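We emphasize that the prediction below concerns an isolated chain of 86 residues; any contacts that depend on oligomerization or on bound cofactors are therefore not represented. The input was used exactly as deposited, without trimming of termini.
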Amino acid sequence: LGYRRYEWKCNAFNEASYRAAQRLGFTYEGLFRQHMIVKGRSRDTAWFSMLDSEWPARKAAFERWLSPGNFDAGGLQRTNLAAGRD
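Result of the prediction step, given as a C-alpha cell string:
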C-alpha cells in the first residue's frame, strides 16, 4: 500500500487490544498519558507501530500461520502466530 509505518493505538487498560498488537507483531512505542477524555475520564493511550521494513518478515509469518499445512484434520492450528515469527 506504500505506507512507511502502521500504527495501533488502544486504551492502555484494554489488555485484549494490547496483547493483540503484540501478537500481530507490532512494537510497543510508549504511553501517551492523559491522551484524551472519554466519558468524562482521562484515558492513557498505548501506541504500537510496525515499519515498512518489518513487514516482509511479518507477512511471511502470517503466511506460514495461515497456510493449510498449519491446520490439523479438525481445523485447529498446529502452531500460533508468535511461533511462526521465530
